[in-house]
Amino acid sequence: MHNGTTVTQFIIEEQRHIAGATGDFTSLLNDIVTACKVISNMVNHGALVGVLGSAGSENVQGETQKKLDVLANDVFIRSNEWAGHLAAMASEEMDEIYPISKQYTRGKYLLTFDPLDGSSNIDVNVSVGTIFSILRCPGGSEAPTERDFLQAGTQQVAAGYALYGPSSMMVLTTGNGVNGFTLDQNIGEFILTHPKMEIPADTQEFAINASNMRFWESPVRRYVDECLAGKEGPRGKDFNMRWIASMVAEVHRILTRGGVFMYPMDAKMKDKGQGGKLRLLYEANPMSFIVEQAGGGSITGAQRIMELQPEQLHQRVPVILGSRNEVERIQGYHLEGG
Ligand code: AHM
Ligand code: MG
């Protein structure tokens, strides 16, 4: 018997204090939790159940889909479409929005998700994750459109991620701090293990894909150069570097011990007319909400991500997030122009 708080108990307790809460939201989060448990189970079994490798298809952004991308997307849809809480869903793996079928009741929420983020790591058995965000459906639940999804990150009702690592974890915010839960495989429940997660304001660790260095813009180049100069440089301290190529794992590290994660704008993306690498609605916004709720910062460079007005469902943006003082410094370099 465990005596810990399960994620469901935790959510019910949190919602109890909200006037007018009907239980819909609690029940929706519960379905998301179930989907993440199913995905965790598939990821854990890997090659044993034949889920590794390519699916032989591409998503809307022209990226090759892994079998697990497609399977995890199906799991998320099946778990969340039937209960009557959602009007529509949108996913990294689907070109268009997914309005809830009329065979089920349509509800007042919208769900966006990246079912399996960092999927280039699946076949090499490195951590991957699921990212999600919940919005209200502004146009009413009857005929949801893509436009209903185009809301600034500040409008999010909740956001979270599941990390499938050495242990599986769920990290959640409903705008009242950030809490982390660890999956107890024996009883199939996420148990509260990391209450009130907070990102230290200072850090000596940064994460960036340095293979893009020659394309970086001057503010990012300046920041990284100063970190690399170490004790002898203007920062007067040594920095460490990490790159997992799995945003969920990077954000989780930052929530645990601080740090900065950057997938910034660069000259190569600019040439291609691409707004960034990571997607605003189901990667950047939910992660920004979590990071800000844990006391960190999250910007494109000069701007706060959560204040961006989305223009497209699969819009990409530059992302710089993590320890507050470092993010402010990088924002300052952008505002100064380099
Ligand atoms: P994905 O959603 O296709 O998996 O791409 C997003 C991932 C992030 O998790 C990670 O930070 C980044 O892509 C890694 O990119 P790169 O391979 O360029 O280093
Ligand atoms: Mg992704």
Provide structural commentary:
This protein has 338 residues and is an alpha+beta fold. It folds into two domains: 188 residues, Fructose-1,6-Bisphosphatase, subunit A, domain 1 (Fructose-1,6-Bisphosphatase, Chain A, domain 1), CATH 3.30.540.10; 132 residues, D-Maltodextrin-Binding Protein, domain 2, CATH 3.40.190. The chain is 31% helix and 24% strand. The strands form four sheets. Strands 4-3-5-6-7-8-9-10 form an eight-stranded mixed sheet, sandwiched between helices. A five-stranded mixed sheet has the order 12-11-13-17-15, sandwiched between helices. The N and C termini lie far apart (56 Å). The mean pLDDT is 94. Bound molecules: 2,5-anhydro-1,6-di-O-phosphono-D-mannitol and magnesium ion. 2,5-anhydro-1,6-di-O-phosphono-D-mannitol binds next to β5.
Question: Could you list some keywords that capture this structure?
Answer:
2 domains; binds 2,5-anhydro-1,6-di-O-phosphono-D-mannitol; D-Maltodextrin-Binding Protein, domain 2; binds magnesium ion; alpha+beta; Fructose-1,6-Bisphosphatase, Chain A, domain 1; 8-stranded mixed beta sheet; 5-stranded mixed beta sheet
